[in-house]
Queue: 4 jobs
Job 1
Amino acid sequence: MTAASTDPGRALVSASLVVCTTGRSDRMPGLVARLQAALRDQRAVSEAVVVDNSPEGSLSELAGDGIRVVRAALPGLSLARTVGCIQARGDVLVFTDDDVEFAPSWPGRMAAPILAGELDATAAPVRLGPEFDDIASPLLRGWLAEANLPGDAVRLVGAGMALHRDLLGLGVWDQRLGAGVAGTAFGEETLFESMIRAQGARIDVVADAEVVHHPDATRLGPDYWRRTAQQKGLSEAYFAYHWLGETMPRPALRTARRRVRLWVHRRRHGSDPARFEQELRLIHSLAVSAGFSRESRSPRAYPPRAAGSPTRATPSVPAASVGSPETPRG
């Protein structure tokens, strides 16, 4: 693939490490330390781009020593990723999150197969930190973004993925999906991956590029899991209706029936921990049908896949969302 910059006058570096963050203060020192360690490894990346998606826009002090801070003023992870893609200079864009632990050489390992022309995108094995060893359910571990371990299907996840810049002309970060969006707060990576696969992108796991994910363990109460089940279902309905072109017969009736099943389950089993995952699956199923009922009232966002039409090359980014990049100190 031939590198294609979003700005013809901008010099490209081999790889950029991009992190979108809402700026949680307890995560910033560790993030900066990891970015600086990666920048010191000459085989890794030539720049690190932190996309400041915090409400206050207060992360400019992180800039310096090869770290650039750019602003995405409006909320939403998909919007922040779009801003990061526009501002990064690399031929290869390596993405991770502010709660992910990685080795200094990790970005270079992720970028190497792409720079060599062997792959167009790479996925990292993502393992949950040891503090989550008591979560045995594959469903729940997957909902916390554990992915690409031996035996898993390959999938791009924001905790650890890389892509060639040319793919930005084939896929978009749909701003109606992803963290920060009410309801459909998941699925933006799945949609992006499906778009680029439809255009022949080569994607595989880099087995020796494992990262460790440390999401906030304090949030993982029953209400969090119920909300996640609902958001996952709504997001999957959006993906199925708008991208896959699927339909669901009588979604309103199915929603009513599934709501009754959930009510019966709760009446019978209450808060029985042994039945909790079953409750989550019922919530998810209910959200899928409710999502189809809602989405089917609007035109499909993408052309039918059978037509082979390419996705639009450039997502719209509200002008107010892209601020001037902070100038690195020193």
Job 2
Amino acid sequence: MKSVGAPELRENKLQYRSANLNLYIYPDALVEDYLKLCPIDHTWMGLSHAIRDKLNSEFQIPEKLRSLPGKLIYFSLGFTGSSVVELMKRMMSILSKSKHRFIIVKGQFLNDYELPPNMWGETFVPQVEILPFVDLVITHGGNNSLLETLYFGKPLIVL
């Protein structure tokens, strides 16, 4: 960024703050508590959410999972987490022992490991369309996953 004239970031800072306008996207109920501890100035504007639109794919629970017993759990570690094949293999091994069913976001290394019988997954799945069907979400805590899970009122485990 320095090569195009941007100033250096301050130590331990990951983003620039504008003197004119800064945006945050988080539910009002969560922001209220944060602001009690860390007030922000007039340059900040909040948006209560940015829930993605459905893709109109009319997602249905895969036949493979429909006939199995147990709760339906959505598992996503985001682009980066799902790219660590050994981590995904280990998590699938652990979750395979569960009596529950899982929808897995496998990420870009889709063909590098097999899913156990209680799981179904793809490189990408329409998260906003799946969330209404699930009983629990296990995620890395990315912004979209967190906000969309809260939006649909689902229990959440953040790894």
Job 3
Amino acid sequence: MKYLFYANFALSGFKAYVCETDDPFHTMGEMHYRTMERIDRLTFREYNETSVKYITEEKGLKINKWTDKYRKQVNG
């Protein structure tokens, strides 16, 4: 199962990140947990295109995709 991950990185302003991983709690540590503030108590949702569309269109947020395999940010 894939998950969406929401985080507010204080040093870089408000952004929403998408984690494509089967282990969201492991990935949370990979994304520098100490630098983020919680949004909706760190809400995890099933990853699908409908959810991404809702975030980008309804919330007006920029989506960045993270790949757990390479642990680097890629534009989405």
Job 4
Amino acid sequence: FARGNWRGTVTAYDAIYKDGYYRQATGGALSLLFHTKVGLVLAASMAKYKLVEPLNQQPNPGEDFPFTPRIETVHNDEWSSNIFDRAATISSEDTNGQILINAQCQLKNEYNQAVEATASDFDLTYECSESSLRIIAKTDQEIISRTSFVLPIISPSRETVTQLNTNELTVQKPEGLVKITSNVPLTIRETSKERIFNMVPGAEAIPIMAYFDKNKVVKLTIEIF
């Protein structure tokens, strides 16, 4: 999709990439977000980093933290996310200057099994206008295990991050300011360094977490100034 200075991709695959290694972005994930003023904002990684093409890859340094924006939960020590969902469906429309993309997805483990003891069915909506990109994630099911929307903003460690309040933060880039606003508190996941690095896409990111509360909806807005 493209609107104003925004360029993006929402992805859903139903195929396994290679020999059972199901790693590429899927599940209705926002796999790419670019802005012509500030550059790359979001970029997907493998769900789990594996040397699928060992002659073209290096081991991933540090912890394996995927960069694909996603809904995720951990139940009974098992990680489930929409980025493992091979059955997600996507629809879109473009009206009144706004692109609306909707994805119906499930939280699944790496074996494509939906989590059963907590909410698994989610609705993802992306609203793109010239002024902003909005992400809405919601469910009608009961959330038993702590569930979050993970937003890894691409950002080298030299860029300044400012938490304006519990629900707003900014990232100062050379050509502009990225502002993220949420209806729930935004937290930055604790890491050993200021950023997390992933070999695919070969970048650093700020691991921003937005946890679902009793209202069972997370609303995130990304703006560029």
